[in-house]
Structure formats: structure tokens, C-alpha cells
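Students often ask why inverse folding is considered easier than folding. One informal answer: many sequences map to the same fold, so there is more than one right answer. In these notes we will look at a single instance of the problem. The structure comes first.
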């Protein structure tokens, strides 16, 4: 089957230019301008992208789709549907499910579920524990992005807080380690102090003081030191503080030349878009771990996008039922669903001159592919899989509950008016999302690496 995307502005590898994209079955065959009338007539499907921007499909390196075991909140089918509606064509899912993805059997179970239900491309992190490093040698490096390490978490036995276990993980892992960095001892102390002064469940505005800048910085410093000591490949998840950004080197030019730094960092859409000033308006809907912090932290995270200290923007998409978001800093669940609205939100930051659209594409498509060595995705290149997102500017629309694809049924963006709209999402050359409709019959592919 041949598909032609014509008339759009291509955003790819640092350039914006007019070109047509010819797709042959699953792969991009060519980028050219213009396509002849004869070639167009020979195509089975023609997509008119006039007035739109055509991007590589977004790769979200950080999601929690909740399956297996937590499917009242979300599942792979529902959240991959939300991904498709948001222009996301590939995702890496985290291991804190039930059972946790800390055994080979649990990892295979996730792949089996996705092979029957995921509407966009998929892979899964393997979770580190205090005692499962012996399994690392059994992991297939072409199937998974890396190993997820919780250095500050209360997620069962996935909190790795023993120094000897951390040394073992960093010295043993041959795959990238993606680390959640918060110091649990500091958090526990801050929570005890907050409860002493403000009661059993302090209001949510206390959350950034409980899960504090110090807690984040101390843990990230430790992870970076361990990675340097053992020459490990480290990707620090969801930076949330100004101080943490100073631990990373600007690396834009190196990344573009294919020289991937050993230590890289991710920011999330939530930490880039919201600040603590939004707690009075949105309350626990924006309660996440690590906490959304001050406008100064937000500003410095945005600065780090542009000099390369932050290399990737993901979502940390983490649905909960609204009933589980009731309470304050202690009792309300942490996490929010953002995957359906991550691209329009980042395009809003483009309009606000926080970053260019070319840099946004680098952070959300090119660099996840570079850092995790994703095969034949993340770029618009002949021979690559035709994972493509088409977005239209100057097209106002409002987020309503009826538009939300995530199973949890809510979003912190409800009521917000966007001015960029995802029109179409192509996954492996197939139009999986088209102007408000997800093709739920389509099942996508496992991602391959290295």
C-alpha cells in the first residue's frame, strides 16, 4: 500500500521545509518536492497536509499504563489510544505494575498483552530491585530500552536503598539505567515535620516542601556519582529542580553527531508547564513525584532544554481514578495523565518562544531514539518506519471530558483551550488516528533497539 502526505511543512533534523512524504507499506520511501501528478495518481491514499506541520512520531520514554494489575485506572489499550490521539507513536512503559516487571516472566506477560491490544508501538523497562541483578544478563538488549531504578519510591520492593545493591546495579547493568531520584530519608523527615505542624494530611501546596529540592538533588548527585564510578549509562528521569540541571553537561552538538553522553536527563511536560503557583487552581490534579516546584525551577528547566542539559521530554503519564486523587500531600495519589495532551502543550511553549519547534521535535522524537538506540524510528528518513504526526496550528479547541481517551476519564488540562491540534497519527504507515477517531482495530509493533 502506498500513501502520499503532500503539502505539509516537514520538521526534521533541525530544519523546517516543504516536502511530500511517500510511504510504501510500513516505511518511508522518499521525501521530495513536489510529487508529480502521475506519482500522486498512483498512490492508494493521499493525505493533504497543506497548512500543517509534519513531524516524526513522538516517542514517550516514560509512561505508566497500569497493566497488568491496576487496570481500574488504565490499561495498555486505553492509554495507547490516548497516545495515538496525542500524536505519540511509541512508548516505553514503567515496571511498577502488579506484578512488578522485575522478573523475566512478568516482562514477557507485558509483551504478550501489548501484542494483542496496543494501538501504538511499545516496549517495557525492566525494574531493578535490591536483589535481582542476576537477571540482567538474561535481558534481550534488542527488545527493551533499559532498566528502571527507583532511588526514591515506596513502590513495594522496587525502592533500592541499600548502597551495596546500588553499587551492584550500576556495575552490572549493560543497558541504560533510567533512575527516579529522590532521597527517601529526607522526604520522610519532611513529611513528619509537616504533619507535626499541619496535621495528618497537609494541604497539597506543601508537597514541593516535603518532596523537596534537597531530596531530589541529593539523590541525583548520588546517581551521577555512581554512574561515573562504574562507567554506567544513566538517564535521570523527570528533573524538577534548578540545582539538578547543573549536574548535566550541554550536549546538543554531540547528540546531533551521534555522540551520546553517558549521563543524560529527562524533563516532563508537567514540570515544564506547571509550577507551584498552579496548586491553588488545580490542587492534587498536578500532584506528582517528584513534586512540581517553584517558577524559578520551572524557568531553569526550560533553559536547560535549549542548551542540551536536558535531552528528552517525556510525560511520566500516570493515571489514577479521581477518587484516588482526593486528599492532600500525604493521602492523595501522585501522578497525572498527560500523554494525549503532551504534544499540544509543548507546541504551546513553542508559541510562547520557550523553544523552537525544531528543538521540540529533537527532544520528543530524535533524542529518545538516539539515547535508547531505537531502530528505524524517531526521524523522517527513507527506509525508516513511517511513524508520523501531523499537527495544525491556529486551530482552537477546548479539552472536554468527552475528548479524553485515558480510562481514568480526567486530565489536568480539562477546560484548557489549545491552538494546535493533532490531525493525524500514522504508525508504521497506518493512519491510527484521524481527526478525532482512533482506529481501535489496529495493533502496532514492538520497538527494537540497538
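Output (designed amino acids):
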Amino acid at each position: 500500500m502506498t500513501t502520499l502526505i503532500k503539502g505539509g511543512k516537514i520538521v526534521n533534523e533541525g530544519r523546517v521545509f516543504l516536502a511530500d512524504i511517500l510511504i510504501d507499506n510500513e516505511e518511508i520511501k522518499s521525501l521530495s518536492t513536489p510529487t508529480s501528478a502521475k506519482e500522486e495518481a498512483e498512490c492508494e491514499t493521499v493525505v493533504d497536509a497543506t497548512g500543517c506541520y509534519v513531524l516524526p512520531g513522538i516517542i514517550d520514554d516514560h509512561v505508566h499504563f497500569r497493566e497488568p494489575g491496576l487496570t481500574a485506572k488504565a490499561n495498555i489499550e486505553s492509554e495507547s489510544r490516548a497516545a495515538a490521539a496525542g500524536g505519540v507513536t511509541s512508548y516505553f512503559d514503567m515496571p511498577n505494575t502488579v506484578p512488578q516487571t522485575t522478573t523475566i516472566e512478568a516482562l514477557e506477560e507485558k509483551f504478550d498483552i501489548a501484542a494483542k491490544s496496543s494501538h501504538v508501538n511499545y516496549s517495557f523497562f525492566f525494574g531493578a530491585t535490591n536483589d535481582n541483578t542476576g537477571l540482567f544478563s538474561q535481558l534481550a538488549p534488542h527488545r527493551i530500552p533499559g532498566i528502571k531504578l527507583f532511588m526514591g519510591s515506596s513502590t513495594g520492593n522496587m525502592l533500592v536503598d541499600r548502597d551495596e545493591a546500588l553499587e551492584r546495579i550500576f556495575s552490572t547493568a549493560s543497558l541504560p539505567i533510567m533512575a527516579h531520584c529522590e532521597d527517601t530519608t529526607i522526604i520522610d523527615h519532611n513529611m513528619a515535620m509537616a504533619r507535626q505542624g499541619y496535621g495528618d494530611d497537609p494541604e497539597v501546596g506543601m508537597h514541593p516542601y516535603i518532596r523537596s529540592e534537597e531530596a531530589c538533588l541529593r539523590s541525583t548527585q548520588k546517581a551521577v556519582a555512581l554512574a561515573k564510578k562504574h562507567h554506567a549509562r544513566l538517564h535521570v528521569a523527570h528533573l524538577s529542580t534548578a540545582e539538578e540541571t547543573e549536574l548535566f553537561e550541554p550536549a546538543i552538538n554531540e547528540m546531533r553527531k551521534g555522540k551520546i553522553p553517558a549521563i543524560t536527563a529527562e524533563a516532563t511536560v508537567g514540570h515544564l508547564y506547571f509550577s507551584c503557583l498552579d496548586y491553588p487552581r488545580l490542587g492534587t490534579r498536578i500532584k506528582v513525584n517528584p513534586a512540581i516546584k517553584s517558577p524559578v525551577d520551572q524557568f531553569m528547566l526550560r533553559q536547560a532544554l535549549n542548551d542540551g542539559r536536558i535531552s528528552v521530554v517525556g510525560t511520566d503519564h500516570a493515571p489514577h481514578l479521581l477518587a484516588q486523587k482526593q486528599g492532600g500531600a500525604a493521602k492523595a495519589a501522585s501522578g497525572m495523565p498527560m500523554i494525549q495532551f503532551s504534544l499540544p502543550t509543548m507546541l504551546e511553549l513553542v508559541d510562547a518562544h520557550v523553544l523552537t519547534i525544531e528543538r521540540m521535535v529533537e527532544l520528543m522524537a530524535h533524542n529518545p531514539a538516539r539515547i535508547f538506540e531505537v531502530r528505524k524510528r524517531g526521524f523522517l528518513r527513507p527506509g525508516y518506519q513511517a511513524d508520523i504526526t501531523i499537527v495544525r496550528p491556529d486551530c482552537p479547541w477546548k479539552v472536554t471530558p468527552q475528548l479524553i481517551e485515558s480510562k481514568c476519564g480526567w486530565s489536568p488540562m480539562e477546560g484548557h483551550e489549545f491552538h494546535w491540534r493533532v490531525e493525524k497519527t500514522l504508525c508504521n504507515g497506518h493512519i491510527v488516528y484521524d481527526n478525532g477517531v482512533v482506529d481501535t482495530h489496529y495493533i502496532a509493533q514492538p520497538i527494537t533497539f540497538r
